[in-house]
Design goal:
Layout lengths: L1 H13 L1 H21 L14 H12 L9 E7 L9 H15 L4 E4 L14 E8 L8 H15 L4 E6 L11 H17 L2 H29 L3 H31 L4 H28 L7 H32 L25 H11 L1 H16 L7 E2 L11 H13 L7 E6 L6 H13 L4 E4 L3 E2 L5 E8 L6 H21 L2 E5 L1 H35 L3 H26 L4 H4 L7 E2 L2 H29 L4 H28 L7 H33 L8 H6 L10 H4 L5 H7 L1
Parallel strand pairs: 5-11
Antiparallel strand pairs: 1-3, 1-4, 2-3, 6-9, 6-10, 7-9, 8-9
Helix pairs in contact: 1-2, 1-9, 1-10, 1-24, 2-7, 2-10, 4-5, 6-7, 6-20, 7-8, 7-10, 8-9, 8-10, 8-20, 9-10, 9-16, 9-19, 11-20, 11-21, 12-17, 12-21, 14-15, 16-17, 16-19, 17-19, 17-21, 19-20, 19-21, 20-21
């Protein structure tokens, strides 16, 4: 592989005009496609195989035209102090508002609070339910404006009016902190390279790669049903890895120049060595992201595949466009050791050990102490993960400044906490001899369960073979008590099935959230086995060792558990929540653990590959194991540190997002990179390698003969580097 990439690097350097033209054309094509495509909405949320999804599909069949996936809004009214919603003046205001709401072209129906008995017992709070024919992200702006205008008109009479539901759902924004993250990355690159030109190359190529990836996602959003969150996460991961991959190639290029090679040769060698590490690091990220498909949640699969595509683009750009841009930069990218002249600093003396060398030497001398300190520290950070509670966000997780959150609180105040998470029970009595009796039996059975506040009468369809029953729990949607009630209804349905031949299914957003959490929990172990297993085999090929990949996988588990602990501490316990902009604590998003496992594993293997391949290279070239560790840190520690800081800055920039999922993932990935890069890879890894010595690089002979030789260390370049016609050979190939 190193030889092929060496040829590719030299060809890209020499034919830079052609390479640059290709990438600019791709960016333009993707941009035009994105500009002409319809705006992305929320991806349709389906959970194949779950009871909640089966019930939802049954509703679509048996209740045609009801628009089960249509947007809803609850317009909540609260009377002024000393008044009631049943007072004539307030009643007239509400009925006028209901009339205005019903005039909307996309409105399917509006319930009158007084006819639907949607007035609280104390008479102070009432609500009108608005149902639309289209989903929240498909609503016209005029419909949202009409909804808000109606509420504003009602407020003029002195009523408190708030709007809940998904009708006001909009595309999330990430905030200005994303720009700050990129600015931090730029500063780190300038400090690392000491040159504006060298620092600008990784930023430029990362932005081009992300531009192509995100524009492609936007262009295909409507066709492939990609949600707005998909492009945000692809941007987050694409920026981070794009900058890092380019950073490693440029750094190696400068090191090759410092050894006296001409610029084309240096570009070829940098692509052949650092580029090989980029390929395998990118493969681990792609495996981790595409592996999310094993969960069988379409939205999560699409997010993973889209982000993996952006990572693949970042790898290709690092291998082709970086060498081409290095050709354009010429002498403005200086050899390593000359970066300080432009800023008035004198280069360090060659014999003076750098910080990476001094740190590696310390770890090699004190491996046991460093190992214990690192493991104990990460173990302490992981302790909160034992209290992990999973759930999906609703209006209760919105900031208190939003009308959705205020409507949520008003409904809880007037009707109880469970009113915000009603359960919809679907009774399929098509095979029953007496459907009406079956419907009544289900309602009576549910009334006898614990934590049930209200059970509405069965509402059958026109055919009379299916009915819906709404159940209001006594507890809030995300509570364990409500989860137990869902399971209780399903258990009761088993007995009803035996007696009446009617199937009882529970759906609704609350039941769907419970099913999602359980599905994700069940998929976590198979996902870990698949992703870690494939990456383990890949790393065996890269490092030609058994213990090094095993150590890499165990270190990753420490990182991800510590990161999950930090997420629980901030988003569930509320530690530093004000600093992070978390206004409402609660359960951690159900998708967070498995998504973090996938992304963090891929990123963790990035640093493992970049750092340890340098050690492997030194060991293969004859150095002792302990000296190879120091050599690896001398060449790689500074660059890996810069890459980690950049990645943390990019991820942390998304903490300012208005989308709670993006905010949580941004924080989780930023803290995970910190734990993995600075504690696991910079401390635990060299300590373990120092303790293992030559055993770290042991590989059974039969396996050594069976494995392909990918030559990540670039050993084959010693004989191929003198060939002047390598680019012509590549063209023929």
């Amino acid at each position: 592989m190193a030889t092929f990439l060496y040829k590719l690097g030299r060809l890209s350097f020499r034919r830079r005009h052609f390479v640059a033209l290709i990438w600019v054309a791709l960016l333009t094509l993707a941009g035009v496609g994105a500009a002409s495509a319809p705006a992305a909405g929320n991806s349709s949320f389906s959970i194949p195989g779950t009871e909640a999804q089966k019930a939802f599909d049954l509703l679509e069949q048996r209740f045609p035209g009801v628009s089960a996936d249509g947007a809803t809004a609850r317009v909540v009214f609260k009377a002024p102090s000393g008044e009631k919603m049943t007072d004539p003046g307030n009643r007239a205001t509400v009925q006028e508002t209901v009339k205005e709401l019903a005039d909307g072209s996309e409105v399917a129906r509006v319930t009158d609070p007084y006819q639907a008995k949607a007035v609280s017992k104390d008479g102070r709070i009432a609500y009108a339910q608005v149902s639309y024919r289209v989903s929240g992200m498909e609503l016209e702006d005029s419909s949202r404006d009409a909804l808000q205008d109606s509420a504003q008109d009602a407020r003029k009479s002195g009523l408190t009016v708030e709007i809940g539901g998904d009708a006001l759902q909009t595309v999330p924004h990430t905030g200005s902190s994303e720009i700050i993250g990129i600015a931090v990355a730029a500063v780190v690159l300038v400090i690392t390279f000491g040159s504006l030109v060298a620092a600008g190359l990784p930023l430029l190529t990362a932005l081009i790669g992300v531009g192509i990836g995100v524009s492609t996602i936007t262009a295909l959003a409507s066709v492939l049903d990609l949600g707005s969150t998909t492009s945000t996460l692809a941007m987050m991961i694409g920026l981070a890895v794009g900058i890092d991959y380019a950073l490693f190639v440029v750094s190696r290029y400068r090191a090759e120049l410092a050894e006296g090679r001409d610029r084309e040769e240096a570009a070829g060698r940098a692509t052949g060595t650092a580029g090989s590490a980029v390929v395998f690091a990118g493969l681990t990220v792609v495996i981790a992201l595409v592996g999310l498909s094993v969960v069988n949640i379409p939205m999560l699969t699409k997010m993973g595949v889209a982000a993996a595509g952006t990572v693949a683009i970042a790898v290709l750009i690092a291998l082709t466009m970086i060498p081409a841009l290095l050709g354009y930069a010429g002498r403005r990218v200086k050899p390593m050791g000359e970066k300080g002249k432009r800023f008035g600093r004198t280069p360090k003396k060659p014999e003076r050990p750098n910080l990476g060398t001094r740190w590696a030497s310390f770890v090699v001398r004190r491996p046991v102490a460093v190992l214990l300190l690192g493991v104990i520290g990460l173990g302490a950070a992981a302790v909160p993960a034992s209290s992990l509670e999973l759930g999906l966000p609703d209006d209760g997780s919105q900031p208190t400044s939003t009308t959705q959150r205020r409507a949520y609180d008003l409904l809880s105040e007037g009707f109880g906490p469970g009113f915000n998470g009603p359960l919809m029970v679907v009774v399929d009595a098509k095979d029953s001899d007496d459907p009406k009796a079956a419907f009544s039996a289900v309602g009576d059975e549910i009334k006898g369960l614990k934590d049930v506040v209200t059970v509405t009468p069965p509402a059958p369809n026109k055919a009379g073979d299916t009915a819906t029953i709404t159940v209001i729990p006594g507890s809030q949607p995300s509570s364990v008590t409500t989860e137990n009630l869902v399971h209780g209804i399903r258990d009761a349905g088993t007995g009803i099935k035996a007696d009446t031949d009617a199937n009882v299914l529970v759906t609704g957003s609350t039941a769907m959230n419970i099913d999602v959490s359980e599905k994700l929990n069940d998929a976590l172990i198979p996902y870990l086995v698949l992703v870690v297993g494939l990456a383990f085999l890949l790393l065996i090929v890269v490092f030609r060792s058994i213990l090094v990949p095993l150590k890499a996988a165990l270190g990753f588990l420490l990182s991800v558990m510590a990161a999950l602990g930090a997420v629980v501490a901030v988003f569930q316990w509320g530690w530093l929540s004000g600093l992070m902009g978390v206004e409402q604590t609660g359960p951690v998003m159900s998708m967070m653990p498995i998504f973090m496992v996938g992304v963090v594993f891929g990123l963790a293997m990035d640093y493992e590959v970049f750092l340890v391949t340098r050690m492997r290279e030194a060991y293969v070239h004859g150095e002792k194991p302990s000296q190879a560790i120091v050599t690896g840190f001398r060449h790689g520690a500074r660059v890996v540190t810069a890459a980690a800081v950049i990645m943390m800055a990019v991820f942390a920039g998304f903490i300012g997002s208005s989308e709670s999922m993006v905010k949580m993932i941004g924080f989780g990935l930023a803290i995970a990179v910190f734990f993995d890069a600075f504690i696991v890879r910079m401390a635990i890894v060299p300590a373990v390698l120092a303790l293992l010595g030559r055993k770290a690089w042991w590989l059974p002979r039969w396996l050594d003969r069976a494995l392909p030789n990918v030559d990540v260390e670039g050993e084959g370049l010693r004989s191929d580097s003198d060939r002047g016609d390598t680019d012509r050979e590549l063209v023929r190939a």
